[in-house]
Design a protein that fits this description.
With 400 residues, this protein is α/β, with parallel strands linked by helices. The chain folds into two domains: 5-177, Rossmann fold; 186-285 and 296-395, Rossmann fold (3-Layer(aba) Sandwich), CATH 3.40.50.10300. The chain has helices spanning 18-28, 47-54, 71-77, 88-96, 102-109, 122-126, 128-139, 165-176, 211-222, 251-260, 304-311, 328-338, 380-395; strands at residues 5-10, 32-37, 63-64, 67-68, 80-86, 113-118, 143-144, 148-151, 157-161, 186-191, 196-197, 203-204, 226-231, 244-247, 267-270, 277-279, 298-300, 317-323, 343-347, 360-361, 363-367, 372-374, 378-379. The protein has an eight-stranded mixed beta sheet with strand order 14-13-10-15-18-19-21-22, with helices on both faces. The protein has a five-stranded parallel beta sheet with strand order 2-1-5-6-7, sandwiched between helices. It has a two-stranded antiparallel ribbon with strand order 3-4. The longest helix has 16 residues, at 380-395. The chain is elongated. It binds cytidine-5'-monophosphate. The site of cytidine-5'-monophosphate (C5P) has 16 residues, from helix 11 and strand 18. Residues 190, 251, 270-272, 274, 276, 301-305, 320-322, 335 line the site of cytidine-5'-monophosphate.
């Protein structure tokens, strides 16, 4: 982000505090940051903190002490203007060209690209007028960063949370660094475990949390893709409501959902820990304990990765995951060819701090065109960004 000029517009919303971290992330990476705030934004976050962190005066008024703030030059100075958090009030003014403060004057005169990160309570976010205003902004080529689901300022839980500072940062990075994005790409991701029923209360499952697949869904979403996430039983869910989530329980259900998109998807990322076997028959009543051994007959589940590998076209890109306990790279290479995948992401089991259920992971990507790229242990969301960039280069036939 060295030398990139970013203009941040802050409006009155509790989420304004997150901008402190965003400014920090941007300046640390060498970006130049200038900030414009509405009057009400100054009640939520201190201009002093922001001017200190950005190293530039924070502007709030069209004029102060006989000086006129040159909104036209500010809009021309920036490589990108991000209005975050975007309140319902400023959203409606932007949609209709109202110009009653410095932030709006800068927006209306900005020649650079503009993005907004809305933040509001769910009821306001879902109001038809808000939806209409968002559509209006989109039609004016403003980038709208999806809102998240979670705790809201009102104390309620729902849609309307502003994206997190790290996500805003990686969004800006992708816009400004010309790094590969996945606009107009449809991506199908499987994630989480599957549960294979034995009887009404028992199942065969595994410890997968779905974290890696969810991080990938979020990273692809940020990179502009249309994301369809087929998620096995997991208490987690992606932050962005733009991601289409299909909740499934069994491998068969996961298989059926993926098959619905088999022809139309451009990229498949099979990160789920699918149970290889399922009980041959599911008992209708709870199994009663008896003396002696219990034998449960198992049937093979469909191998989703394999089936997609058999029927994919040259324009479709297929990613598989591997978790190996011995001869990791050899086995991953074998999987690459036997499943006809375009790349395999090998999870390391060497480090006890990474992997299943953890927030960090350590991977190696082995691709069909002979590349082997090792990544150091890092957070699953940072790795997801690396994977998204790697796939983009592969899809666009650039050297990764
Ligand atoms: O062959 P193995 O199960 O080790 O392969 C792991 C990869 O295959 C992962 O990408 C996993 O999501 C996928 N897989 C699948 N369907 C299965 C089993 C595994 O898609 N039934």
């Amino acid at each position: 982000m060295q030398g990139k000029k970013i203009l941040i517009g802050i409006t009155g919303s509790i989420a304004a505090y997150k901008i402190i971290l965003l400014v920090r992330l941007l300046t640390k990476e060498g970006a130049e940051v200038k900030i414009v705030m509405t009057k009400s934004a100054t009640q939520f976050v201190s201009p002093l903190v922001l001017s200190t962190l950005s190293g530039n005066p924070v502007l709030t008024d069209l004029s102060s002490e006989n000086e006129w703030a040159n909104h036209v030059m500010l809009g021309r100075w920036a490589d990108y203007m991000m209005i975050a958090p975007l309140s319902c009030n400023t959203l409606s003014k932007m949609a209709y060209g109202v110009c009653d403060n410095l932030l709006l004057a800068v927006y209306l005169s900005a020649t650079c690209r503009v993005g907004v990160a809305p933040a509001m309570d769910e009821d306001m976010w879902l109001h038809p007028t808000t939806k209409q205003n968002i559509e209006q902004l989109k039609s004016q080529h403003v980038d709208v960063i999806p809102v998240g689901f979670g705790g809201l300022a009102s104390g309620l839980t729902g849609e309307g949370r502003m994206a997190e500072p790290e996500q805003l940062f990686s969004f800006l990075e992708k816009q400004l660094m010309g790094s590969p994005i996945h606009k107009n790409k449809k991506v199908v991701i499987t994630a989480g475990p599957t549960y294979e029923h034995i009887d009404p209360v028992r199942f065969i499952g595994n410890h997968s949390s779905g974290k890696m697949g969810i991080a990938l869904a979020e990273a692809f979403c940020m990179a502009g893709a249309e994301v369809h996430l087929v998620l096995g039983p997991s208490h987690l869910k992606p932050k962005y409501t733009d991601i289409q989530v299909y909740h499934v329980t069994t491998a068969i259900q996961m298989y059926e959902k993926v098959m619905e998109h088999a022809k139309s998807a451009h990229i498949f990322v099979m990160s789920a820990a699918v149970a290889d076997y399922k009980p041959k028959s599911v008992l209708q009543q709870k199994h009663k304990k008896k003396n002696g051994e219990l034998h449960i007959e198992l049937d093979l589940n469909p191998d989703i990765l394999f089936v997609i590998g058999q029927q994919k076209t040259n324009d479709q890109y297929l990613v598989g995951f591997a978790l190996e306990t011995e001869n990791a790279k050899e086995n991953a290479l074998e999987k690459l060819s036997s499943k006809n995948a375009d790349c395999i992401i090998l999870n390391s089991l060497e480090d006890p701090e990474v992997g299943f259920g953890k927030d960090t992971n350590k991977i190696c990507i082995l691709s069909k065109n002979g590349q082997t790229v090792d990544f150091p242990a890092k957070s699953k969301s940072l790795l997801a960004n690396d994977i998204v960039s790697f796939i983009s280069k592969e899809v666009n036939h650039e050297v990764a």
